[in-house]
Structures are given as structure tokens and as C-alpha cells.
Write a structure and sequence with these properties.
Elements: H1 2-22, H2 34-57, H3 75-79, H4 91-105, H5 109-122, H6 127-139, H7 143-155, H8 162-173, H9 177-190, H10 195-207, H11 211-224, H12 229-241, H13 245-257, H14 263-271
């Protein structure tokens, strides 16, 4: 008998638990009086005010957007950035880009070109394939074809300002100095802190005989990088040509001091001869 009573009590308890779960715990929701509700609202409002005050005293740190790496004359360094290229919309393009980079780094440039071309054929609207193929052609000194690929990637709105820099290098090697200048300026308009771009721009002006513009560009390069030895050297030579011997020698000596050994002969010939 006791066994039956115990079983019945257990059954009633189980049914009660099941009913409690199904009801969403509504039985245990307390009913607040108007006074209690008012006090609770005041407490919540006070907490919100305290949170706002804390935000003002300790503001969240701003999110810093990462920028693309500065370009390098070492094409290998630039193209290796795409070794883990991701294309969410098209895994086949992603695979071809990665394979192309792997082949480039292994100096198998023919296969690299084929892989980048495959990526382009799969999706002609994706700019990365054109960009990487352009870099490969630049490495192979196929300048005109490289310019064509860089131009296509720019028209497809690639988010790589470095494209202008490398297209400028290709133009300067043709040589098409006017277009090289335009592209270096386009790069500088986006990335103002890269000394090498100002240096390359200065060399272009120098080739055109625009010495004042060249000196200004080398000066800007030095402002961005106070240890840019080549800019000191080139500026020193141009100042000498402008009969500013003292300033020219100062720049040449600075280039030598920074480790640019070819400046030694110029310092010896131009500066010591004039006792500067």
C-alpha cells in the first residue's frame, strides 16, 4: 500500500514538473504593485545614466583600419601578399590565384602566368588576377603587357593603390616618363607617406631635365624618411649642377654617412677639390 502511495506521489510530482516546463514558468512570475514598478523603473534609469557616464569617462578605443603594405621593387615581396588570397564568391578563382603565387615564388613564371590567366577566364570581372599577372609580367620586363593588366585591374576598381606605383615603374622602364609621373602622382595622392615614391618621381623629373621639381621630390622623400640615402645623393648632385656647391656637398656627405659608398668619389672630387 505504501508502495502504491509513493508511486502516486512521484507521478504527481513528474506531471507537475512537466506542466511547469510547458507553461514557460509562468506560475513563478511575480506581479508587481504600481509602487514597486515605479521603483524598478527609477532603478533601471539610474543604471542607464551611470553606464552613459562611464562611457564618457572611458570611451572605447577607435578601430584602426589596416592599410595595404607599401610597394617594393622586389616584386616577390608584393605578390607574396596574395599567397592566402580569399575569394568568397568563387573558390576556383581563389585556388588559381594561390597556385599562381606559389609558382611565382618557385620561379616558375610560365605556370604562374597560366594560373593567373585561368583566374581571369573564370571571372573576368575580378581584378586580382590582372594585378598578379601584371606583376609577373613586370618581373619578366614585359612592360607594355604589364601596363595593360594594371590598367584593367584599375578599371575594375581594385582596392590596391600599389597598382599605380607598379604601373608607373613599368612606364618609366619603357621609357614613357610623362605617364610614369602621372602614375607616381596618383599613388602619392592615396599614400602620402612612402618615401620611395617621391624618390622615383624625382628621378622621372630629373630625366626630363626638370631639376627644380626633382629637387623638391627628393626633399619630400627625405622628409618622409630622414635616412633615404639615395635622395640625399641625387639632391646633392642636382644642387651642384645648380651651383649650390655648399648645400650639394652637404647632401653628398650625408649620403656617404648613411652608407651610400658611391658618394665617396663625388665627395672627394667635388667637395674636397673646392675645400668644402
Amino acid at each position: 500500500m505504501l508502495y502504491l502511495i509513493g508511486a502516486l506521489v512521484l507521478l504527481i510530482m513528474v506531471l507537475g514538473v512537466i506542466k511547469f516546463i510547458k507553461s514557460g514558468n509562468k506560475e513563478f512570475k511575480s506581479k508587481l504593485s504600481l509602487k514597486e514598478k515605479k521603483e524598478l523603473e527609477q532603478l533601471l534609469e539610474k543604471k542607464n545614466v551611470e553606464k552613459e557616464e562611464e562611457k564618457k569617462e572611458h570611451p572605447a578605443e577607435p578601430v584602426v583600419k589596416t592599410k595595404a603594405s607599401y610597394p617594393s621593387k622586389d616584386i616577390k615581396s608584393e605578390i607574396s601578399r596574395f599567397a592566402t588570397h580569399i575569394d568568397i564568391d568563387n573558390p576556383k578563382v581563389q585556388l588559381s590565384i594561390r597556385n599562381g603565387v606559389e609558382n611565382f615564388l618557385g620561379m616558375n613564371f610560365k605556370e604562374a602566368l597560366e594560373q593567373f590567366s585561368l583566374a581571369i577566364s573564370i571571372n573576368p570581372q575580378a581584378p586580382t588576377g590582372y594585378y598578379c599577372r601584371g606583376l609577373t609580367k613586370l618581373k619578366l620586363k614585359n612592360f607594355e603587357s604589364a601596363i595593360s593588366d594594371f590598367s584593367e585591374s584599375i578599371s575594375l576598381k581594385i582596392k590596391e593603390p600599389n597598382t599605380f606605383y607598379y604601373r608607373a615603374l613599368a612606364y618609366s622602364n619603357l621609357p614613357d616618363i610623362e605617364n610614369a609621373i602621372l602614375n607616381f602622382k596618383s599613388y602619392i595622392n592615396v599614400e602620402k607617406g612612402y618615401a620611395e615614391a617621391y624618390y622615383e618621381l624625382g628621378l622621372c623629373y630629373k630625366k626630363l631635365g626638370k631639376n627644380d621639381e626633382a629637387i623638391n621630390s627628393f626633399t619630400q622623400a627625405i622628409e618622409k624618411n630622414s635616412k633615404h640615402e639615395l635622395s640625399f645623393f641625387e639632391r646633392g648632385l642636382l644642387k651642384h649642377q645648380s651651383n649650390d656647391t655648399e648645400e650639394g656637398c652637404a647632401d653628398l656627405k650625408k649620403a656617404l654617412e648613411l652608407g651610400y659608398l658611391p658618394a665617396y668619389d663625388y665627395v672627394n672630387d667635388l667637395c674636397r677639390a673646392n675645400k668644402i
